[in-house]
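> example.struct
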């Protein structure tokens, strides 16, 4: 089994075992950790990048 397949299966198992609240909680914890570890300048820099992708294309998922 490849790492990719193992990761996909693990993600599917997690999704099957946890609800929406689980993902909201870990998202909130991740956001708080990012906030604790970065300053205002960090958010200004990522905000300035906006929707620009790293490969130069700016495609929307809409």
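> example.seq
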């Amino acid at each position: 089994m490849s790492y990719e397949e193992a990761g996909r299966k693990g993600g599917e198992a997690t999704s099957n075992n946890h609800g929406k609240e689980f993902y909201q909680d870990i998202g909130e914890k991740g956001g708080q950790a990012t906030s604790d570890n970065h300053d205002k300048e960090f958010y200004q820099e990522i905000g300035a990048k906006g929707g620009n992708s790293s490969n130069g294309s700016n495609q929307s998922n809409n």
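> remarks
The mean pLDDT is 89.
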